[in-house]
Amino acid sequence: MKEQIKWTFIDFSDNTPTIEMLEGRLGILALLDEESRLLSGSDQGYVNKLYQHFGTPAHKKIFTKPRFSNTAFTVHHYACDVTYECEGFIEKNKDTVPDELLAVLQASSFEFFESSEIRFGDRFSHLNASYAELKPAKTEPTAAGRGGGRAVARKATLGSTFKSSLITLMDTINNTKVHYIRCVKPNEAKTPWAFDAPLVLNQLRACGVLETIRISCAGYPSRWSFAEFVDRYYMLVHSKQWASDPRTFCETILSNVITLPDKYQIGLSKVFFRAGQVRS
Question: Residue 116 pLDDT more than 70?
């Protein structure tokens, strides 16, 4: 808008509602922890809470209940729909490292465990933080009629540990300049010189590479100021066509080099190019 070029809004997939459903205050992970801490918590109780919270018309695009199951739910992820069977969820979520074993590992002077603690320090820190969280127990009257209570350790669950690691990861990403390297598996058998096209395509789609390319092609990702463009490409036209005005000079170069006018736009101070135009 500032450069006054013609543009249209680019439609893109917004994954925010799905992320909020997974990580929100009353999201899938939070409800799993809540049900895991109940004495009467069960897999069925957990999935019933999911149906109650997300089985509504407002969430039908990201969450559905399978037609022939009362113990499963389907999340419509960015890449594809995934159905989760809740049997064993509560038991698995409570399957944490015992306090005593964790203390032994961290107190060990064995070189292997010391190096492991360095490698997985964040993982241990999440567990330690959760173990350290104390909450006052309900006060129970003693035989003498006096109130008394004790602090009960609130153990970390796998869900809370995973959520904490995601928060730490996002903090790291937000505080750094990130460069992404996409690793694509060419085949399941890890065989050299074997290329499984459907497998590779699914990975590219799941990683958002195809969506990124689509958005890039729909817009003008390459942008040059008039002075930069002239300084780089002035030799593409005869010296008789050179102009003192940078904008006019840019228009002359572009009209001689690019035959399709929809491949670029000239703004007030910059030239905007479709993906691949400057490189080609």
Answer: no
Of 77, 80, 68, the closest CA to residue 28 belongs to 77
Q: Binning pLDDT at 50, 70 and 90, where does residue 130 land?
A: very low
Domain ranges of the chain: 16-93, 99-174, 180-219, 220-273
Q: How far apart are CA 71 and CA 84, in angstroms?
A: 9
Distance CA 197, CA 78 (A): 20
pLDDT confidence bin for 154, thresholds 50/70/90 = low
Cα separation, 84 vs 66, in Å, equals 10
Distance, C-alpha 259 to centroid of its chain: 40
Region of poorest pLDDT, from 43-52, 109-118, 267-276: 109-118
> Which CATH fold topology does 220-273 show?
Alpha-Beta Plaits (3.30.70)
What pLDDT score was predicted for residue 7? 73
Task: Give CATH for domain 16-93.
Answer: 1.20.58.530
Cβ partners under 8 Å of residue 122, min gap 6: 165, 168
Cα distance between residue 100 and residue 157, in whole Å: 16
When pLDDT is averaged across residues 268-280 and rounded to a whole number, the result is 83
